[in-house]
């Protein structure tokens, strides 16, 4: 069982600019690799941004922002991901990147996704958030189960869920049951649920700590929490649009990036108020002993009473059947567009 060094990126995107944000991500990956990190995880939809505006204004006021988000979202096999794959291969590191993903079937359908890149530049996993949470539904479509996978990497068996998915016990169990050793949770910079002065806003730091510790305790796995950061440019963009939201932004709890061990206890760095990279070292042998106490996918369960079936088929909006030859070609093309490209070299 290896000792590994991991990095949780606590950073702001170049707000709604996919090209500049990709360049910033590459710079961060290089810094983290110089710091010895073997696995580098970025926040929820780091490229190009998290649509916090849906928690600030009515949807009738945000049409232009949705259009801009759609324009700046990225394809899973587009140039931004290709650039990240080249960098991961050049440095020999694993990279998990949160993206707002565009659809090959629609100019307006988006997903909240992550791409896990291996040290050879190959895509190990591509997950679309199962259910966008609360006002996120105004931006993203529901995903599917194709990405509910734990992947084998040089730093161990790694699984990941996005934000509120870490509250879904069945999604979490689906990863636990694949011998997960490291669990990545990705979060936005802030998540306002009430206007300033109208009650207490959602405390995402405490909520995320509870969820992360609970999952690691149940899985007997290490946990990485990587959260976005609201920099001055992002705040100015939102406040310039409507000065009344300044108080709501400033009173909303800032997310934190941190780590927990297989008992749910804190380990490694903790970042909240400053942009940067949090580091931790994991001794994966520590995932074994706690399994003696509770192994929920080994012996500490009743499989004769409970059962879980997970549909990991990628969902498609349409199937074309023209003739035998064309049908075969369409199948090859669709396969390439979805998962087979993940095994190609960058």
Characterization of this structure:
Helix 1 (18-34) packs parallel to helix 3 (79-91). The protein has one domain: Nitrilase/N-carbamoyl-D-aminoacid amidohydrolase (4-Layer Sandwich), CATH 3.60.110. The chain is built from eight helices and twelve strands. With 346 residues, the protein is of the alpha/beta class. 44% of the residues are buried. The strands form two sheets. A six-stranded mixed beta sheet has the order 5-4-3-2-1-12. Strands 6-7-8-9-10-11 form a six-stranded mixed beta sheet, with helices on one face. The chain has helices spanning 18-34, 63-72, 79-91, 169-176, 204-219, 232-241, 246-251, 324-337; strands at residues 3-10, 39-41, 94-103, 106-117, 123-128, 151-153, 156-162, 182-187, 222-227, 257-260, 266-271, 276-283. The model has no long low-confidence stretch (mean pLDDT 94). The two termini are 29 Å apart.
What structural keywords apply?
346 residues; alpha/beta; Nitrilase/N-carbamoyl-D-aminoacid amidohydrolase; six-stranded mixed β-sheet; 12 strands; 23% strand
